[in-house]
Amino acid sequence: MAWNEPGNNNNDPWKNRGGKDQGPPDLDELFKDLGNRFNGLFGGKPSKEGKGPGGIGISIVLVVAFVIWFLSGWYTLREAESGVVLRFGEYTELKEPGLRFNPTFIDKVIPVDIQTVRTIPASGFMLTQDENVVQVEMEVQYRVLDPKNYLFSVPDPTNSLRQATDSALRSVIGNSRMDDILTSGREIVRQSTREELEAIIEPYKLGLAIVDVNFKDARPPEQVKDAFDDAIAAREDEVRYVNEAKAYASEVEPRARGQVNRMVQEATAYKQGKILASQGQVAKFDQLLPEYKAAPEVTRQRLYLETMEQVLSNTSKVLVDTKGNGNMMYLPLDKIMQQQGVLPATGQRPATDYNTGSGQTTQPTQSNRPSRGDRFNDGRN
Length: 381
Prior knowledge:
Blueprint: H1 27-41, H2 53-72, E1 74-77, E2 81-87, E3 90-95, E4 98-101, E5 107-113, E6 118-127, E7 133-144, H3 147-152, H4 157-174, H5 178-182, H6 186-201, E8 208-219, H7 225-294, H8 296-312, E9 318-321, E10 329-332, H9 333-339, H10 372-375
Antiparallel strand pairs: 1-4, 2-3, 2-5, 6-7, 7-8, 9-10
Helix pairs in contact: 1-2, 4-6, 7-8
């Protein structure tokens, strides 16, 4: 009899294979069995119809799964980070630092540090403009400026920046002389490298900002290092000598200018003195001329006596008596007057008053000078 003929036949090969009920599972029976199992875990009794306490267990499982999913979506972005949100793999927005919610299996958040300053070294042997080989070491400091471009513009922005740095450095070194690179042109090389690097990375939109470029070291190859050290030392000596010469010039020049000004002032004063003295002599002769015209002989005699007075006042004088009885007697007037305290010790005899003969030690002036009549008076009436 066939297994599917009418009657109480229970020979379904899918339900009773091998002597047991091993047919393909029914979905209703499968859910019923799962409900009974979970119901047993939570203290309920199994239900043959899949209702009652078994349905409550499934609901509890779903609630627990939802709670786990909800809690797993919370995350925290640090102060230095910015979150790049991808919804089903597509960029949507940026998240600010703080406590945020991200629906699990829907959105993905990639934190990017946008404040930390990172460093890329660059070094190597390079050819200069004057066809010399120099070993240069440089360090580039950068930070992330745009997280979106940093993640999606190029596959590896750090490697791209490293290659751009090497290219910019070789371009600048190739247009510079070796002496400038090793000595006074280091700052120019550093600034030029930064400008060249920023111009190279701008079209690629790497999302990076150059903070600084540090020129660490530049030296010639070891084979010629001693010669270049001597050249650098000579250049430093040149700079030192120039500075010393400038300092010496700064010290001597003001002193020389002061001396020049003093000499000019002295010459001007001497000139003015001579002019005034000449004018005084002219005025004196202008006053003497009328007297000379009035009495030429008397004026001539007076001028002679005044001249002799001026000459004899600065010389030693001896009085000699030649009218004696064969003996010559002389009197050193200067010594006698010095012993009496009339003349100073210098030996210069001041002019005396010819009228009184008192030997008064007063310098003759225009006011106390004897008149012409008194000057020729020998004391006799």
